[in-house]
Every structure is written in structure tokens, then in C-alpha cells.
Amino acid sequence: MTVESVEPRAVRRRPALSRREVLTVALRLIDSDGVEALSMRRLGKALDRDPMRLYRFADSKDALLDGVVELVLEELCVPEAAGGDWQDVLRGAAHGFRRLALAHPNVVPLLVTRPLATPLGLRPAGTLRPLESLLELLIGAGFDERAALHGYRLYTGFLYGFVLTELQERVSAPDETEALLRLGLHRLPAREFPRLRSLATELASFDGERELDEGLEIIVEGLRRRLGPAGT
Predict the structure, then answer these.
(1) Are 137 and 78 in contact (CB under 8 A)?
(2) How far apart are CA 66 and CA 122, in angstroms?
(3) With DSSP H G I counted as helix, E B as strand and the rest as coil, what are the percentages for the chain, rounded to 5?
(4) Is the pLDDT of residue 80 over 70?
(5) CB contact at 8 A, 81 and 140
(6) Per-residue pLDDT, 229
(7) What are the CB-based long-range contacts (under 8 Å, 24+) for 213-221?
(8) Is 60 helix (H, G, I), strand (E, B) or coil?
(9) For residue 120, what pLDDT is reported?
(10) pLDDT tens-digit profile of 115-143?
(11) CA angle at 148 for the pair 102 and 89, rounded to the nearest 5°
């Protein structure tokens, strides 16, 4: 009796994951369901991998969140000032930051709060590149180092506050129509809230792009005056 040889079944190996793939899926989960919904278990399920294997890419959820912030900020470009026009670069970078915020609203609180949890020198390099680029831009425009740092803080402080305010306007009551918003404000006691009542129409027709430009003009003009004739 002959014994037929049996060919061993080929084992299909899945391609190795990259850190970028892991962070991209984590960002997708945050975009969909918020930061609180992200866990290593859920991320592993989305990637069809053992969650324990994901710790090689981020040793904790905090490290994972830092990586997501780094991934998002990679999309923010601060170009060199063409022809010395640093003011246009600041305007363009601000609008780029706003577009990122609107594309990833659930990540915005991380952009604002994650730096508080990590000393400057220990943050992921990708989160520091916009800072380095903006400082280089301002110093190249003629600001000394201290003034450039002050300008950066003023500029980013405005941007963080602006996008948080705009997202609050958009997210807090997404199903509320303009008419209902006006109705709600006009129900407020007139003696206690006269300004809010008078601004009902303006509040209901918030134009984020226009508001950003108006705020930027104040910031940029203040920086230009501090720089003096060289900044014009």
C-alpha cells in the first residue's frame, strides 16, 4: 500500500503593520466616535490584530494620543516667506489650522490639552515642527528671538481659542436652525442679557472664515507695529 504525500498548507502571513497605519486608524476612530471611545482593544479589532501587539507602536493610550496629534499636525504646512511676506504666511497657516480643526473636530481638544501633559522637549518631533517653523518665520522677518516667541504665543493662543469657539458654535446644537437659535435668545430676560438679544442675528450667522480673517488682522497688525518699518 502506498502512502500519498500531503503537501503542507501554505500559511498566509499578513503584512506587518506600520506606526502610521496604526495612528491613521486611531484617528479614524476618534473622528467617528470621539477620544473617549478609543481603546487598544477597539483599535486592535479595527486593525484585526491582537491589541497587545499594538503596544510596540505606543506603550500607553497617552502615547497613542500624542501620536495622533503628531499625525494631524503633519498636515499643517508653514511655508517659508516668499519675498519676505511673513504676514501672508501667518494668514495662510491660520486658515490651514482651521481647516484641520473642521476636518478633525474631535482631535482639537487634544491639540490644545496634550501639550500640557508633556514637557516641551519630550513631545513628539512632529508636534514641535510648526513651532520651529513659525519661530524661524518671525526671526527671518526681523523679530529678535524673544519677540518671535511672544508673537508665536499670541498667534497660537488666538488660533486655539478661535477654533474652540467655532466648534462650540457648530457642535453644541447641530440640529438647531437659525430661527430656533434666534427664538431661544429672544426668550432670555431683556434686562439681564440685552447684548445677547441684540446680537441674535449675528450669532446665528457665524461666518468662521470671515471671523478668522478679522481676528488675524488685529494680531498681524499688532506684530507688524512691534517690528516697525522693517515689517511693512
Answers:
(1) yes
(2) 11
(3) 75, 0, 25
(4) yes
(5) yes
(6) 66
(7) 213/91, 215/158, 215/162, 216/90, 216/91, 216/94, 216/158, 219/90, 219/154, 219/155, 219/158, 220/87, 220/90, 220/91
(8) coil
(9) 77
(10) 666 777 778 888 888 899 999 999 999 99
(11) 45
230 confidence band (pLDDT: 50, 70, 90): low
Q: Which three cell numbers stand for residue 28?
A: 479614524
C-alpha 187 chain-centroid distance = 35
Residue listed under C-alpha cell 511672544 = 150
For residues 173 and 206, the answer to whether their CB atoms sit within 8 Å is no
- Please identify which residue in the block is written with the cell numbers 499636525: 73
Give the pLDDT of residue 187.
77
Helix (H) or strand (E) holding 65: helix 61-73
Name which residue leads in pLDDT, 45 or 1: 45
Question: What is the per-residue pLDDT for 12?
Answer: 63
For the chain, the first-to-last Cα distance in angstroms comes to 97
Those residues with Cβ within 8 angstroms of residue 94's Cβ, 6 or more apart along the chain or in another chain: 155, 159, 212, 216
Give yes or no for residue 174 having a pLDDT over 80.
no
Cell numbers placing 216: 488675524
**Which amino acid, 51?**
P
- Of residues 15 and 153, more confidence is placed in 153
**Cβ atoms of residues 182 and 201 within 8 Å:** yes
Minimal CA–CA distance to 216: which of 90, 85, 81, 111?
90
The letter for the amino acid at 187 is: R
